Each structure stands twice: as structure tokens, then as C-alpha cells.
Batch of 3 targets.
Target 1
Amino acid sequence: MSGWNKSSKNILQNLALISQVGIMMLVPIFGGVLLGAFLDRFFKTGGIFLIVFVLIGVGTSFRNLYMLSIRQTKDYKDVENPSTYVNNYEKKIQEEKRDKENKHE
């Protein structure tokens, strides 16, 4: 990936994140559906296991997404945030002022 620019890397990282979110949502829910349907057939119940395990799968999905968002927030806080851009811009303006003053002297 040495020939890739920063924009391409960001696009790939975002695509990977979207894929990860999709997988984290679908796998627990489908797992709950499969397990609930199997247990309903095995115990000959009227769908109670299906409902219970789908709800558990949905809860697990939201918990996984919450944990992922916490982890991503920490990563983004460490890298860049709006105040970083503002501070860098203010520093640049101050440096330009100093350069102008030094040229006039």
C-alpha cells in the first residue's frame, strides 16, 4: 500500500468499517433465528425460543455496535478533531504575521 495516498486509505478504512458494522449486526440476529428455530422444532414449542433468541441477537448486535463506536471514537480523538484544525490554522496565521513583520524590519 505504499503507493496509495491518504484519501484512498481513508476510503478503504471506511469501507472496512461499514462491512464490520454489517457483519456485527447480521451474525447475532441470524444466529438467534437459527438457534431459536432449531430449539422450537426440537422441543415442539410455538415459537417462543425464536422470539427469545432473536431479541438476544438484536441486543447483542446493539451492544457490539456500541462497543465499536466507543473504540472508534477513541481512535478518532487521538488522531484528528475539529479543534486540531482550528489550532493549526491559528498557528499558521501567527507564523505568517511574524514572517511579514520580520520582512518589514
Target 2
Amino acid sequence: MQNEGQRRSPNYLFSLLQLKCPRCRQGDMFLQKSSYKKGMMKMYDTCSFCEQKMEIEPAFYYGTGYVSYALSVALTVASFIAWWVIIGMSLKDDRFFWWIGFNAVLLLATQPYLMRLSRTVWLSFFVRYKKDAACDWIAQDEHTVG
């Protein structure tokens, strides 16, 4: 049981899937909430909660291509297994080709979200979670004002 004074830290996986800042797991990384609107890849310069810089150095996000590729492969493998279990595979008919078409549409539909997710995952490789990151920043801000 938790004490009332303790705060629960946000779940790592859920904060990644919701595209939150990896340091505080509360602030949004992207200006647009939706992955399917114009300007979907525009990011905040810093987190609104903990002031974490979103771009640590110039060309920081070039490595996200590797993460995006890994996520696409994982989604492809998952769709293949699901197709095999639900529909089945056979060399005697064209179910395999139907899966290829289904997988292509699935990858095209999820690519905007996967691109944003890959940026979040890539940043989380280099920025570690700090439980009181938002509280530290607020306390520091109050201290400088007062």
C-alpha cells in the first residue's frame, strides 16, 4: 500500500505510447495531439513540466530511422502471427498475398504514429526518468522568484 505522500510514477510503456516526455512522463512532446494532422512532427522546444530539451543536439533524431524500422518489423511480425492464427497460411491458395496487402495497408496507416513513437523511444534512450523532475523545476522557479 502506498503512503499518501508518495506519488505513483507513470508507467514507462504507457508514457511512451502516449508520446510523453521521458524525463517527467507528463509533458507532451508534440504540438499536435493527433498523428494524422498537418504539422504532426513539430515538437515543443522544451517540456512544459520539467524543461527537458526535446532536441539535445543538432540532427539528434537521425537515429530514429533505426527505431522506426524496428517498430515496423515488429508490427509486421505481429500481423503475420495474428493472420496465421486467425485466418491461416497456405501455399495452395492466395492467403499469403492477401496478408501482404493487409500488412502494407496496416503499415501505411500506422506510419505517422510510428514516426512519432520512434522519436519518443529514441529520446528515452538518452534521457532517464526522474521522479520529481516537474517538482524540482517548479521549486527552482519559485525559489528564483522569491
Target 3
Amino acid sequence: MNRLGYILLYSFLGIVAVIQLFPLFWLFLFSLKDNREIFSGSPFALPSEFKWENYLKVWEGGIGLYFWNSIWITATAVVLTVVIASMATFALTRMKWKLSGLVLGLIMVGLMIPVHSAIIPLFSMFLQVNLIDNPLSIIITYTAYNLPITIMILLGFYYTLPREIEEAAVIDGCNIHGVFFRIILPMTMPIMSTTIIINMIYNWNEFVFVNTFISSDKYKTLTVGIQNFIGQYMTDWGAIGATLIISILPILIAFIFFSNKVVEGLASSAVKG
């Protein structure tokens, strides 16, 4: 490619980057305005006075608790999903048993179940076991819904692993648990990083299940806690903007530092060798 071609390519990519980043910049400016300035001024204008108190207001209004709930619920569900999916994928790809194909098919069926179609059955089930308004119901739901896609991503990578490594470990006296935890699991860290990030993004942004199963403020996550700033007669839009900025920061930071891991993991699971 000649010099002009590179100039055109990077100019196009620069324009695309600006288009992608502008909504974040606009939301940041939005979070520093009050209702009067939001509705009376230009939506693209800089704030006449930066309302940093919007961030203090939302933090004192309970966003700190919602933020912590989002962190520990997301982290717990991600760990459970990745560990269970890794064990299931190991059993499906590295062990020989008659029903492995049927079990894999049943797991993949989970990809076709819409979220909204399961809300009523899940609510009824959790109500019978007294898990409504309990964060355990959210963790179980996140884990179950993310298992099929996580297993599907892991499958391609597990099929590329040479069996000679496992055979050598068994000859050296390693049992099945040792093969998995000491040999296979460390080798799958690139693809596990991919599944961790994908699960984290879904769990962090999820709204429907938390809004349905959780009613107490002490268990609500950020996505549901935003509703506290929407009133019947008055809505503090600047505070909502500040809450949205706070809520996207962890995902944005994770993407900046680990986006290359996502590409590396997906590529390694798609290419055999």
C-alpha cells in the first residue's frame, strides 16, 4: 500500500474512532449539567458551570452500595461460570462417555432460549425456594445463562490441545483431577480471559433479572439503582448521567487493558495448530 493509501486508511479509522468516542464525551458533559441547562441549552454545548456535585449527589444517594453489589455479584457469577464451563468442556472434549454428544446438544439448546421467556418460570421457582429478593437468585441465573456461550467458546480451544500432554502426565502418575487443574487449566488461560471479559460485560450490564428478582435497595445493582433518580414529578437527569459514567468506567477500563486478550483468545480457539 502506498503513502496515499495509508493516509486515507488512517483518516477513515480516525473518523470512525471519533464517531465511536463522541457518545461517551457527550454523556460526560451531560453528567456535568443541571436540568435547566440540559433542556434549555444546546445538547452539544459545554456546561456553563461544571456540576461536579452531581457525582457527589449520586454517591451519597446510594450508588456506592449499588456499585459494590455489581462488583461482587458479577465477580462471583463470572468465577462460577468459568470454572463450571471449564470442567464441563474438559469432560465433553477430553473424556470418552456415551452421552457426551447428547449433553453437548442440550447445553447448546440453552443458546436459543430467550431471556424474557424464562422470567416467569424462574420467578416461580425462586419463590418456592425462598430466593426472591436474594442475590443468590441473580448469581444462579447469570451462571446458568452464561454457561452455553462460555462452553461454546471454550470448545474450539480444547479441541486443539494435544492429547500427548495428558498422556505424559498420566504416565508420570497424575490423576484426572491433576490433569485438569495442573495441566489443562493453565494452558487455557488465553481463552479463559476471553470468556471472563464477555461474562463480566453481560453480568455488569444486566437489568431484567435484577429488576424482577430483587426489591431491597441493599441488593440492587447499578443498572437498577439508576431508577432511584427518576421521580414521579421530577427527574434529576444530571445525576442519571453521572451514574451512567460511573457504571461504564469498570467495563471501559477492562476493555482498554484486556481487549487484546479477547482477540487472542478467539483467534486461538478458531485456528487449529
